[in-house]
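pasting for the record
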Amino acid sequence: MEVIQTEILGVVVIEPDLFGDERGYFFESFSERRFCEQVRSVRFVQDNESKSSYGVLRGLHFQKPPHAQSKLVRVIKGRVLDVAVDIRRGSPTFGQHVAVELTEENHRQFFIPRGFAHGFSVLSDEAIFQYKCDNFYAPQSEGAIAWDDPDLAIDWRIPADKVLLSEKDRHHPRLNEAAWLFDYSENLY
């Protein structure tokens, strides 16, 4: 696998070694040993999957300590724009984001460390999205920021009138209004 560092330290794109022939293809989608050696020592404890249609936007979500989560995400069907936003106060990249297109064809994976808000928009007719988490879901620790915060300037690559949100995702605060964010000086692992 090739690990590609993004503009924000710790946020990486992973391209698997794909082996294909006339029968199809094979790739190792996850190896704990290789991941810990090449990305970060993380123990994933929960796998999730979602199915969404064009225009669905989920995010920007995070979990507060002690239930903060790292995520390793990928698309097995369709195409999404996946986004990680640095929400660690005091970070040199605070408020900046990385956006990566994940597709069933490119087989890329995206690692979002603790201390980041995460979201994605569906660019294809349908998408099946999978993600590994290194901490269990804890509803009492949910946090989020507004997907359309103008200070973040995220181009979700969907016209605003086509965006489909959950009721909850319609009412998150902007980053500068958030009551709770991570502290860059704290060790989140």
